[in-house]
Amino acid sequence: MQRRYSEWEIETNGVTAVVSEWGSGVQNMVLLHGVSGNRMTWSDLALRLAKDGYHVYAPDLRGCGDSVATGNQIGRTLQSYVDDLESWTQAIGLNSFVLAGHSFGGRLAAEFASQHLDTVERMILIAPAGPDSFKRAAAEKPELVENTPRGNSQFDNLKSIEGPTLEALRQFSAANPGRPATRSVVMRWLGNLDVDDRGHARHIDSHETIDAQMTILRTEDQSDKLAAITTPAVVMRSIDEGVMLRYTIPHYAELLPNARFIDDVDADHSIPSTNPDAVFEALVM
Hints:
This protein is of the alpha/beta class. The chain is built from twelve helices and ten strands. It has two domains: 5-136 and 214-284, 3-Layer(aba) Sandwich (Rossmann fold); 142-205, no CATH class. α2 (78-92) crosses α3 and α6 packs across α8 (182-190). The protein has an eight-stranded mixed β-sheet, sandwiched between helices.
C-alpha cells in the first residue's frame, strides 16, 4: 500500500481551509482538533493510522492554524464549523467516513453527525466539550463555577508574559499553584506557539477565535439532538479532567443511544497527546 502525505487548500464559505491528508487506505477517517489546537495535533496518530490502512484527513478549523480567519470570518456559531466541514469533505469527495474529535472538536463532531447520519460511519468523542452549554451545567450545579478557574483569563495572563518561553511558564505556574485548569491552559498555550531561535514565542492563532469557540461552548446546547444519532459511538473521559468537563462528558454516553463510554483514561484532558495508545485503540476498534 502506498503511504503518502499531502495538503489541501479548499475555499469554504469565505475562508481557505487547510487540510492534511495521510495514507491511501479504503477506510476514510476525519480528525477534528480542539480549542487553540491545529491539524498537526494529530500528526503522530495519523501516521500510525495510515500505516494501519486508514485514509486520514485533519483540518485546521476556521481561524486556527493555517485556516486564517479574522473579523467577520471568525466562526461565531457551531453551525459555521459544521458548514465548513460539510464544504471541504464534499469538495474532496468524502461521502462516508469515521469521524473523531477532541474537546471542541468532539462537540463539532456530534453536531455534524446529527445532521449527516448517512455520512458518519462511527463517531469517537475524545474528552468532548459538552453537550450541555456551560451556562446550563453551571445552573444545574453552581459549585462547578466555584471550582472552575476562568481558563480564558489565565490564558490572557500567560500570553501577556514576554520573554523566553520557559521563564513565562515558570512565572505562570508560580502564580497559579495547584489550580485545576493550570495544566490545561499551559497545554493550550504550548500548542499555539511558534518558537524562534532565542526561545521566544509567537502565537499562531487569533485569540479572537479562541474567545468565539469558548462562547459557543458556554452558550450553545446540543443535548436535545443526541438521541437521534444512532451512529456507533465511543465517548472518552480522562482520569484528570477539569470539574466542568468531568460533569458534562458522561452526558454524551447517556444521551447517545449507541455509545460506549471509556472512562478514567490515564491522561489529562489532552488525551491524544498524553495517551495516544488509548486514542488509537478507540479509533480502530
